[in-house]
Write a structure and sequence with these properties.
Layout (H helix, E strand, L loop, with lengths): L5 E2 L13 E4 L9 E6 L14 E2 L2 E6 L4 E5 L2 E4 L4 E5 L5 E5 L5 E6 L28 E3 L2 H18 L4 H19 L6 H4 L2 H17 L6 H8 L3 H12 L3 H17 L6 H7 L5 H12 L3 H12 L1
Parallel strand pairs: 1-4
Antiparallel strand pairs: 2-3, 3-10, 5-8, 5-10, 6-7, 6-9, 8-11
Helix pairs in contact: 1-2, 4-6, 5-6, 8-9
Length: about 300
């Protein structure tokens, strides 16, 4: 296995005559794409998904029944009835799904709501789209699952009309589905924090994603956020249960794991890409925080993927 593949939203073949799937790629807004598919049952239609890969788009999987598992950024989630899994662009993942499993898949581009909402990245307000694996799965109550599946069925049916009205209707239903699911999180610790604190933590996570290679100290991010390091650390503990420094460390560690899945890169290259002074320093960092050497992790990752 060579470099880990990155799949775009157009990577999957769509059957235009199937009543169980629809794909919308508007010519006037090419960045606003959505693909919805209903598997009744799965029947191993996408065999390549057992291999680790990434997406350039957001993905939601809603399981009605079945067995198997999904591994997202090296954390495994077991498939069970009524579970919903969320994935954001760039996450390394793969699935092992029983061929009799029934579920829905919704893929949409990063700019899907761009022309529809004033805030093109409105969905980033949802805790399940922040890339936090603690928020990446939720079990829906039965009544809510029924509401969501009705919305999805309507979206598939309406999408086949291929009109601008249909496109807007689907956006409305898609947003309704996201809001209904987000309501399950409203009593969480994150939601109990003031809006300003939640906004700061959201910006902090985004800054870490963009700068973790070159900025490794909490004080650097506190300066960018115009808060004190003490305040940032306090908010980080409340929201994530980790210090700001641990959040930064874990992001670098996650990237190391993602790079190690790519067999085209040797340890020296990965060490350099992550701004370590030398490969031995990187290996000590990795083993200290995972209990395994980079080489051992790479071997085990491919044993799972194959």
């Amino acid at each position: 296995m060579n470099a880990i593949p990155t799949l775009g939203i157009c990577s999957f073949v769509i059957d235009p005559n199937s009543p169980d799937e629809v794909s919308i790629h508007p010519l006037d807004n090419p960045t606003e794409q959505i693909f919805i598919r209903r598997f009744n049952p799965y029947a191993n239609q996408y065999a390549p998904i057992v291999k680790p890969h990434r997406h350039t788009f957001y993905q939601i999987m809603i399981f009605l029944n079945g067995e198997g598992n999904c591994t997202v950024d090296f954390v495994q989630f077991d498939i069970q009835p009524r579970i919903v899994l969320f994935m954001v662009p760039g996450q390394v993942h793969n699935y092992h799904i029983n061929d009799k499993t029934n579920f829905y898949v919704v893929d949409f581009s990063e700019g899907y709501f761009q022309s529809f909402l004033h805030d093109a990245h409105y969905y980033e307000r949802f805790p399940f789209f922040l890339g936090d694996l603690n928020e990446s799965a939720v079990i829906l109550p039965g009544d809510l699952l029924n509401k969501i599946t009705v919305l999805l069925d309507n979206m598939i049916k309406e999408g086949r009309n291929n009109s601008s009205v249909s496109s807007d209707l689907i956006k409305v239903w898609m947003l309704e589905a996201l809001l209904l699911i987000a309501a399950l999180y409203r009593d969480s610790q994150i939601k109990s924090l003031p809006q300003q604190s939640r906004s700061i933590m959201s910006k902090f996570k985004k800054l870490v994603d963009e700068n973790f290679v070159k900025l490794s100290l909490p004080k650097d991010y506190a300066a960018l956020l115009f808060v004190t390091p003490s305040y940032l650390n306090q908010m980080s503990r409340k929201v994530t249960g980790k210090t700001a420094g641990e959040v930064i460390r874990d992001r670098k560690l996650l990237e190391a794991k993602r790079l190690l899945v790519n067999q085209d890169l040797n340890i020296s290259q990965i060490s350099n890409d992550l701004n370590f002074t030398d490969p031995s320093h990187f290996s000590k960092f990795f083993k200290k925080n995972t209990g395994r050497s980079p080489e051992d992790f790479r071997k085990s990752a491919f044993e799972v993927g194959e």
